[in-house]
Every structure is written in structure tokens, then in C-alpha cells.
Amino acid sequence: MKSAFIQNTFNRKGQLSQLALDNGLSNLEMCMAYLRKLPYGRNTHRDDLRLVFTEKKGTCSSKHAALKSIAIEQEIYEVRLILCIYKMNAQNTPGIGPHIRDAGLEYIPEAHCYLDFDGEKIDLTTPNASLAHIENDILHEEIISPEQVNIYKVNTHKALVENWLVTEQLEQSFEEVWAIRERCIASLSTL
Predict the structure, then answer these.
(1) How far is Cα 4 from Cα 95, in angstroms, rounded to an integer?
(2) CA–CA gap between residue 101 and residue 47 (Å, rounded)
(3) Has this prediction a pTM greater than 0.85?
(4) Residue 55: is it exposed, middle or buried by C-beta count within 10 angstroms (0-12/13-18/19+)?
(5) What does the H/E/C string look like for 39-88?
(6) Collapsed DSSP state (helix, strand, coil) of residue 183
């Protein structure tokens, strides 16, 4: 990572910064390494980013929103939280192929979050996560705030899936596609 600000020692307090410090993490670089190693999994409450540190797991949304929140607390504004919707398929998301194929689909639009550090895209979802796997399959991208990973992200994702069903003239209902998506996400949690 080229940006020196990620190595600056935290000098401001905030709830998430304090949780990071309590875990021995004193700068963004250390937080990034820590979050990347945490297991992938949904937290008990989607709207409580502290759970990433207390439950020691997180999703693309919670991990990236937690780091963005720490950056805000530390007044580091070069970090942007990005919501993207991409074509989730067996090639770019290993482990979900049977669910997609059994439904007769090529892909399902999936929401993903990552960080943009002053122009450098960072994915902390898993230790081996890389945006290179999905960059050619991205349908939509926008900057969001940490608070938007809860309701806004879900509503945006659902609206894009509903639009996709109409545009592609697919026979599955929204409920059927969303259930397939949920099975895909569940299988990612077991990898």
C-alpha cells in the first residue's frame, strides 16, 4: 500500500478505534491485516459494527464499514467505502456454482463492499480476497457511508435484482432468486 497515512498511530478516540486499540491495533495498516484474517460470517446485528471486533468475524459490509468508521474517527478522509453490484457466478465466486447451475442461471447480481484508499482498491473480506476476480463483472459502483451498509445497501441490491429479473425476462420470482442467493452466501460462510 502506497499511502503513508495507514501507518499513522491512532491519536483520536472513538468507539471502534478503542475496540481496535483493545485488540492491539494502533493504526489502519494493523486493522486491515486483522480484519482480512477474521473469518467470513454474518454478525448477530447488521447495524452494530462493534460486533466485528467482539464476535471476531464479519462480512464484506461489516469489515469494510468498520474500517471506514475507524478512518472517520481518526479524521482520515482518503478512505472511501464502495458498494458494488457484480455478476456473482461460479468462476468469480468459488463454492456457489451448484446453486447457480441448479437454478438454470448464469449469475445472480450480488452486492459487495470494498475500500478505495486514495485510488487503490482494497478487499478485506477474506485473506485471499481480490477485486481482480470480479472487476470485469461489476454492474454498479457507488460511494456509501458506513451507516448505509445496513438498510440502504440491502434496498439498493434488491432493487437491482428486481430490475435484472425484468430486463432479462427471467421466469424465477424475486423470492426464488433471493433464496438462491442466500444459499450461495451460506455456502461461502463454510469455506
Answers:
(1) 36
(2) 33
(3) yes
(4) middle
(5) CECCCCCCCCCCHHHHCCCECHHHHHHHHHHHHHHCCCCCEEEEEEEEEE
(6) helix
Estimate the crossing angle of helix 151-167 against helix 174-189, to 10 degrees. Answer: 120
C-alpha span between 170 and 161 (Å, rounded)? 11
Taking only the tens place, the pLDDT of each residue in 37-75 is 999 888 999 889 999 999 999 999 999 999 999 999 999
The pLDDT tens digits of the residues spanning 99-147 come to 999 999 999 999 999 999 988 999 999 898 889 989 999 999 999 999 9
- Do residues 49 and 65 make contact, with C-beta atoms less than 8 angstroms apart? yes
Compute the distance between CA of residue 139 and CA of residue 152 in angstroms, rounded to an integer.
Answer: 17
Pair 124, 115: CB distance under 8 Å: yes
